[in-house]
Amino acid sequence: MIIYGVYIVSKSGGLIFNLDNNVPRIEHEKTFTYPLDLVLDYDSKKVSVSFNRKDGINVGHVLVAVNGMPVNGVTLDDGRDVRTTLESPENYPINLKFSRPKMTTNEKIFLASMFYPLFAIASQLSPEPKSSGIELLEADTFTLHCFQTLTGIKFIVISETGLNGIDLLLRKVYELYSDYVLKNPFYSLEMPIRCELFDNKLQELLAQVEKTGINYMAIPEDSFQPCTDGPPGSIAMEEAFYTGNFMADLVPEGITVSGNATTLWNFPRTDRLQARVSVFHFNRGTWEPTVFNVLTRDMCIAIFDKNSYWNQAWFQNLLNKEEIKEKCLITKDTVMVYNPFLLKLRADNIIGPPLSGRYKSRIIFEAFDVNDNRRPTSLCFEFTAQVERIRK
């Protein structure tokens, strides 16, 4: 588990704290012949690429070594001038190593000030009333997690992709902020945080999190069962889909899936299909809600998004993807044909208190018309399983 950085943005949009925890160093090394086909910019502090790109070396990358010798500003370790060395034909072929530059403090302040209006715009554009704004932003190489307090302070964590439970980490950072910053008599609100004890406690927390992410396996008891207390108007799986040719068998490793299922419920293709997953823990005879909840606003997009869990775990195994793209899952008589696969009920790198015992996942599918009004009929079903920790 890798946490790249932690940032705190004040309610007025200013960056008041940043910590680079584990920033990956991206380097590209290549041997060049004369003349050099990269245009370089020489200033007093660095040599950087200003034009052209080649083999992963892009505009903005900084020269860090020449023939294995480190570059300090615009000179080599032996005192030679970099520009003179690169412009001399007798030095070729020459090996150059470039690296993506680290963000400066000014660049971090600029990005934080840009995130503030984007967050506000997202809150206003959201069709959900009293939207909490941007909570998760996923990219190919990182994920941004944001938690805003009631007073408007934003806590941001940048992590590697595919991690679960970062919301718990954000709240723990908030607790440290409350204990070691707000209670510091020498700290003034909205000012940059310069509290050594807070820095130390935060680094201890990140070190602990990176070492203690836990992997879990769910041993299923049953699957696709009707909800015991679903929303009004909800129907069971058998009422929404014909499953006579669909097979889902429980095995120790998970659920084996094969065959095909046909849609019975019928909504216009213009409707938006929303999915909501909630996890409950069985404790002393009652099902108690947990912090694990996932909302997917548009399933017709998510099932074909290769980065989404829905696609990776289930819908990538469809054999008739083009038909599903056209009709989605809400048009009557749509047939979903599956290539046989094993659904592994496993979750990795979970942060937070240890999980054990009996859990159930409640999955609700709801359709919304073009005016974003909820249809009266929804699909609700549940999975029940015993959760066990996987020893690393």
TrEMBL record:
**GO terms for cellular component:** endoplasmic reticulum; Golgi apparatus; TRAPP complex
- Where does the record say this protein resides? Endoplasmic reticulum; Golgi apparatus
- Transport recorded as keyword: yes
Gene3D superfamilies referenced in this protein's UniProt entry, alphabetically: 2.30.42.40, 3.30.450.70
GO biological process, any: endoplasmic reticulum to Golgi vesicle-mediated transport
| UniProt cross-references to InterPro entries, sorted A to Z | Longin-like_dom_sf, TRAPPC, Uncharacterised_DM11_DROME
Keywords assigned: Endoplasmic reticulum, ER-Golgi transport, Golgi apparatus, Transport
Superkingdom in the source lineage:
Eukaryota
Where does it primarily localize? endoplasmic reticulum
Similarity comment text for this entry? Belongs to the TRAPP small subunits family. TRAPPC4 subfamily.
Subunit and partners: Component of the multisubunit TRAPP (transport protein particle) complex, which includes at least TRAPPC2, TRAPPC2L, TRAPPC3, TRAPPC3L, TRAPPC4, TRAPPC5, TRAPPC8, TRAPPC9, TRAPPC10, TRAPPC11 and TRAPPC12. Interacts with SDC2.
Relate the protein's function as given in its record: Core component of the TRAPP complexes which has a function of guanine nucleotide exchange factor activity for Rab1 GTPase. Plays a role in vesicular transport from endoplasmic reticulum to Golgi and autophagy. May play a role in dendrite postsynaptic membrane trafficking.
What is the protein name stated in its UniProt record?
A: Trafficking protein particle complex subunit 4
